[in-house]
Design goal:
The chain is built from seven helices and eleven strands. By secondary structure, the chain is of the alpha/beta class. A hairpin with a 7-residue loop joins β10 and β11.
Length: about 260
């Protein structure tokens, strides 16, 4: 009896910055998740899924709609979620309720691809790295989650405005990744490919020893990366970036224009 080769489809997305369940960004996201889950694709969300997440007890329209989309899809396929710099308060209660798996950053996929939100590589932005250390600390997060939901929403609005003001005064180059740090982390992990978001600069970069894929943010269009993994040891996995229109619908990525 001949063994049949099987292929696993993996789909990656990040930096959607969802904030309104009625707009086309959200409806396109929901369509992508539903369509890919229906064909058994494994889904990896690499941070900044929403513009802000104030805690797993959030009962606002976006939180309820987002929970429903992920809960329905997780009944059909594997969904993994990584924290970004906007939604670092996603916690285990949300994971249990929706059925998603929370990923550490960075995460090595199949021993080959290093997944990251990407902000850990932006070492030239020293002020951001200091803020990141505080926001990712268990002590700070516990102190915030002890506050009322309304207080957390007000805090999030203030932090969002401050972040926008800070970024407006920064040179663009310091908000990109430090290539030597990407290479160092990928090499230590034994990975020849890196996939991240955060910088909002979609593209494919060939370093000396690795290939770096950068997901774009969902602004004028959406971005996904698709990886086909074969069960045949001789087959090479393929990873590509794909641009999709924000129409509230989703067609097969095979017919969408690639980068």
């Amino acid at each position: 009896m001949t063994n049949q080769t099987q292929t696993t489809r993996q789909v990656f997305l990040s930096d959607l910055h969802l904030d309104n369940p009625q707009d086309e960004r959200f409806t396109t996201f929901a369509a992508v998740i539903a369509a890919e889950a229906a064909v058994g694709a494994h889904l990896y969300i690499l941070g900044d899924l929403c513009e802000v997440w104030v805690g797993d007890d959030d009962n606002g329209p976006l939180a309820l709609a987002l929970t429903k989309v992920l809960e329905d899809a997780a009944q059909q396929t594997k969904i993994a979620l990584m924290h970004g710099n906007r939604d670092f308060l996603f916690g285990e209660p949300f994971a249990r309720r929706t059925g998603v798996q929370l990923l550490e950053d960075p995460y090595v996929l199949d021993g080959q691809v290093l997944l990251s939100h990407g902000d850990m590589f932006c070492l030239d932005d020293e002020a951001y790295q200091q803020a990141r250390s505080l926001l990712r600390s268990a002590e700070w997060q516990a102190s915030v989650l002890d506050q009322s939901l309304d207080a957390r929403r007000q805090l999030a609005q203030g932090m969002r405005a401050q972040s926008q003001a800070n970024n407006a005064n920064k040179a663009a180059n310091i908000m990109d990744v430090r290539v030597s740090e990407v290479d160092r982390v990928a090499t230590a992990a034994g990975c020849a490919q890196v996939l991240h978001g955060h910088t909002h600069r979609p593209g494919i970069h060939q370093h000396e020893k690795i290939t770096r894929f950068v997901l774009g943010d969902w602004d004028r269009c959406g971005w996904i990366a698709v990886r086909q993994v074969s069960s045949s040891p001789a087959a090479q996995s393929r990873l590509e970036l794909i641009r999709i229109p924000l129409t509230g619908r989703y067609e097969s990525a095979a017919v969408c224009p690639a980068l």
